[in-house]
Specification:
The complex is a heterodimer of chains A (208) and B (321). Helix content of chain A is 30%, strand content 29%. Chain A is an alpha/beta fold. The longest helix of chain A is centred in the last third of the chain and has 21 residues, at 187-207. By secondary structure, chain B is of the alpha/beta class. Chain B starts with 8 loop residues before the first helix and ends in a 24-residue tail after the last helix. Classes of the chains: A alpha/beta (208), B alpha/beta (321).
């Protein structure tokens, strides 16, 4: 199997936020990370990135850059073609609908997301919860976290906090309202790297 | 037990839940700009321009410097108004050693407390015991020893002090270069030599050892103090800053006169142009093409005050011990 050796090339949107933590986590999970700031760095043609992470940070800050530099359309297109994983602010960017306050989003993930739903920084918390991922309970680091208030029929929840999904998957999209990049447990990033490998293999098979 | 295969510096440095959450928020602010704001309208402009956070205060450093008097924590009512007005994190300053001001700021719900030399110090020997708080703290530093003493006290973020309220970047540069140089020097020392280095730095050995192993501070390292233009922000980022604090650089016209963003549309536009340009420059700090574009778009810059012309006794950066 050549797949065992294959290290996919995964970008991390590096406008603002904890992109460095994601890049380190991706390297540990068997991918080659690179930082993406411009539409050119996404390179949507043949030799492009195999997947992308939208990191934690301030979604309003990221949105300004998306709107100013033609990144919005490029990211939207990328979400339709390749696996994308959003954490915290990244979930807000991916959602179909954002509330508190209402703001623009890519609309790729069939979910309604409330910003700052658990309160301010003093309400940030590290919790352990059951997950459908193999390997037992998952540590979840919530920092001024959003809440997924509603999900569509094609969205599969993989972990919960007080009944609200915290880790979800929809086709080749994944989203976490917490920060797996700030934990030592690499299961979530490894799952995403596997999704990226699967998508790439499937695409190569179709091309043949 | 869940598998613990990661070896990331982002989770490994600290094990305490509280400190991990504090440093976690600092991680989220990386690559961003934290802007000083004195009212709701300025806070809205900052958020609209793409600031990652705002610092609520009654007078920006340039005004404190010009007007004198005792500079204290901002009034709770003002901080609450700003918290209501924006969705991004809100910071506020407490005087050095003034833990009661910090208790009030935590109660209000600010997301980060800046134990700041810009305000008049309340204690000339002790800093706040920052471990005693749930709210994270940022502290200023001019050198590695000072940075590590603050981290030992519980700071979750360090910023260079620079010389606040001047619009002169020279001391921010000096302090960043100093900290980076001292960190590099530690990485080549032997185990034996680290004990002596800790003594020289007047900092805890465990923290000195951590820096020697990674070549980095164990918490994010931001830059502040005199950053006034997009080029200044890019300079500090290229020198190793992980995010930028801008104080007087966005909303000041003359030395002690702020732009009238509430009534004068032209002056509002000027503030917006400066704020946007610094935000873009901080993200694209190593792209001269984008830096040129945004520098062109700025209308006006704070007049500033050469730091070299300031009498030693008037420097803010020497506060902190």
């Amino acid at each position: 199997m050549i797949e065992a050796e294959f290290r996919p090339h995964i970008g991390v949107l590096a406008i603002q936020g904890d992109y460095a933590a994601h890049a380190a986590a991706l390297a540990e999970a068997g991918a080659i990370p690179s930082l993406v700031k411009t539409p050119e760095e996404l390179r949507l043609d043949g030799q492009s990135l195999d997947g992308l992470i939208l990191p934690g940070g301030e979604s309003t800050t990221m949105l300004k850059f998306l709107e100013r530099h033609g990144l919005f359309e490029a990211l939207k297109e990328f979400c339709g073609m390749k696996p994308v994983f959003g954490t915290c602010a990244g979930v807000i960017l991916l959602a179909r609908e954002v509330r508190n306050p209402v703001q623009r989003s890519l609309g790729a993930l069939d979910a309604v997301v409330d910003r700052n739903a658990y309160g301010r920084q003093v309400d940030s918390a590290i919790l352990h919860a059951e997950t459908t991922l193999p390997g037992g309970p998952l540590e979840m680091v919530f920092i001024r976290a959003p809440r997924i208030a509603r999900i569509g029929p094609d969205v599969e929840p993989l972990a919960f906090r007080e009944g609200a999904p915290t880790l979800v998957r929809q086709g080749s999209l994944m989203a976490a309202t917490f920060h797996p990049e700030l934990s030592l447990d690499r299961r979530v990033h490894r799952l995403f790297v596997e999704m990226v490998k699967t998508a790439k293999t499937a695409k190569a098979a179709r091309a043949r | 037990m869940p598998e613990q295969t990661g070896n990331s510096e982002f989770a490994g440095a600290f094990t305490g839940t509280s400190l991990r959450l504090k440093v976690g928020l600092a991680e989220m602010l990386k690559g961003g700009v934290i802007m000083d704001v004195m009212n709701v309208e300025q806070a809205r402009i900052a958020e609209e321009a793409g600031a990652a956070s705002v610092m609520a205060l009654e007078r920006v450093p340039a005004m404190i410097r010009a007007e004198g008097g005792v500079a204290r924590m901002a009034k709770p009512g003002l901080i609450k108004q700003i918290i209501q007005a924006v969705s991004i994190p809100v910071m506020a300053k407490a005087r050095i050693g003034h833990f009661a001001e910090a208790q009030i700021l935590q109660e209000i719900g600010v997301d980060f407390i800046d134990e700041s030399e810009v305000l008049t110090p309340a204690d000339e020997t002790h800093h706040i015991d920052k471990h005693a708080f749930t709210t994270p703290f940022v502290c200023g530093a001019r050198n590695l020893g000072e940075a590590l003493r603050r981290i030992a006290e519980g700071a979750a973020m360090i910023r260079t002090k620079g010389e606040a309220g001047t619009g002169d970047v020279v001391h921010a540069v000096q302090h960043m270069r100093q900290i980076v140089k001292e960190m590099k020097a530690l990485t080549v020392l032997s185990e034996q030599e680290l004990y002596h280095a800790a003594k020289e730095l007047q900092a805890p050995y465990e923290l000195v050892r951590m820096v020697a192993q990674t070549g980095k501070l164990p918490v994010p390292n931001f830059s502040a103090g005199g950053i006034a233009t997009p080029a200044d922000a890019a300079l500090m980022m290229q020198l190793g800053a992980e995010a930028i604090f801008v104080g007087s650089g966005i909303f000041m016209k003359e030395r002690a006169t702020p732009l009238d963003v509430e009534h004068d549309p032209k002056e509002r536009e000027e503030a917006v142009s400066r704020a946007k340009a610094i935000v873009i420059a901080t993200t694209h700090y190593n792209d001269p093409k984008i830096l040129t574009e945004v520098s062109e778009q700025v209308t006006g810059t704070m007049k500033g005050l050469a730091a070299a012309a300031i009498d030693e006794s008037q420097l803010l950066q020497t506060r902190g011990w």
